[in-house]
């Protein structure tokens, strides 16, 4: 038997057709050697044109609608003859009209706020108290507006007694006083400004703590400056100061600053001198009125019955003891005098 040279058979992959080498799998696609070829993938159908996807629709005949007139008058629908009607089941009739009595809740059941129910308990006391407060405030305002007193300085403790007794009224706004007493003309004026002052004695000048020479002339009682003063030595009880007005006037108020109302270098000279506690005012017709003073350095005025006069006298009836301490002085002082009224007509 003859021999021939061996030539190995070259196989190809049944999946991809590549030549097979050594191993159990195709080196090209990894298909197992000896396994049948895989089934071919189905080929997709070509896409249909858009018109092929729409099914034809048969044309529908238009439905005849009832013809309306020019105005919005509804046309009654036509109904088939009685023989062709199908009996309808018993269904309750539906309302087409809107009835507020049935479609809305009754408002008296949800909105009743009991507005007519009276207030119970003690709540009425608040209303009574508020009304009383308003009445009191109105009364006070009426009293304030009715008064014509324009004094800006505190009046202090004041008492008055007028001679003769039948002229004792102090309120010049009272109808009786206006009708019986003089009235005067022109604006209200302080006639102490520019008046002449006659005094029993005057203390000599002194040097103040700041080195200023200070005089105590009587005219300084009418200069409008409470830091200047008339001063006399010792207790001036019983002494009289006469004020001669620039012209006759109808006087309605009098008053004074009852001590030395000056402060300098941190020292208040008001408590360091004697202060006047009371005086008696006199007028040309012989009437007098008394005034008492509080111990404070301000102008304290007193309303008097209107009296026409050209001179006013004030008689000192009571003073305090002299000041105490190293700055205490034994002098009686008046810083300012006020005589307020109108010119005599």
Automatic annotation (TrEMBL):
InterPro entries: Galactose-bd-like_sf (IPR008979), NADase_transloc (IPR057561). Pfam families: NADase_transloc. Residues 214-338 form the NAD glycohydrolase translocation F5/8 type C domain. It comes from the Bacteria. Keywords: Membrane, Transmembrane, Transmembrane helix. Residues 70-102, 151-209 are annotated as: Disordered. Signal peptide: none annotated. The chain crosses the membrane at residues 122-142. This is NAD glycohydrolase translocation F5/8 type C domain-containing protein. It comes from Nocardioides flavus (ex Wang et al. 2016).
